[in-house]
Design a protein that fits this description.
There is one protein chain. Helix 1 packs antiparallel against helix 4 (96-122). Helices cover 86% and strands 0% of the residues. It has helices spanning 2-18, 21-52, 56-88, 96-122, 125-150, 156-191.
Length: 198
């Protein structure tokens, strides 16, 4: 699921950069597989809980796996939203500075997804703590995009395009939040304690 979610985000950034309609459709279609995998993981985990009645560490791990799978599925949803918003803005005049800003956000979001999955696999608390700092950077980039969009107010078509790009920025910010949530599950497995990382 992590590979699929990352691939979906990468493709959505490619759609954003080139507004490729066929690639946009591939992102949207690819979401079905992520949804199915999440449902399979959830079903298998619930079945294990019902049949084996795991305790302590085993139960905690199963619950964490369900949560992580859900966050990966949601990251895929955010990638679909990016592709759909980009498609909706097709034909409107873009601005290169906004696209570059969004690409920067997207690259950092993908790096956060990679880091969160690695933290979960390794149960690495130091990696988990890095996620909060990276999320703050994403939040700042999201806030900065508003001033870029305001700069488009002299051109109605460009302003309409920029409003769509504000949606894209929000979707990338939400995907980063899901990466933080995965890190929180990693922290929980490593320590047995709940901790907000953002």
């Amino acid at each position: 699921m992590a590979v699929l979610a990352r691939q979906s985000l990468r493709r959505s950034l490619d759609v954003l950069d080139g507004n490729d309609a066929s690639l946009s459709e591939a992102v949207i279609r690819g979401d079905d597989e992520l949804d199915q995998r999440y449902q399979q993981i959830e079903s298998r985990a619930v079945d294990l809980i019902a049949r084996q009645q795991p305790m302590a560490t085993d139960l905690r791990q199963l619950m964490a796996l369900i949560h992580v799978a859900l966050h990966l599925e949601r990251i895929g949803d955010m990638a679909v939203n990016v592709a759909e918003a980009t498609r909706a803005a097709s034909g409107l005049p873009p601005r290169r500075d906004i696209l570059e800003h969004l690409q920067q956000m997207g690259e950092r979001t993908i790096a956060m997804v990679d880091l969160s999955v690695e933290a979960f696999i390794k149960r690495d608390r130091a990696m988990c703590e890095q996620l909060g700092e990276l999320d703050d950077e994403i939040d700042e980039l999201n806030d900065e995009l508003v001033s870029h969009a305001v700069g488009c107010r002299g051109d109605e078509g460009q302003l309409r395009w920029a409003i769509r790009m504000l949606q894209v920025s929000r979707y990338l910010e939400r995907a980063a939040d899901h990466a933080v949530d995965i890190g929180e599950q990693a922290w929980y497995l490593a320590t047995g304690e709940r901790r907000e990382l953002d």
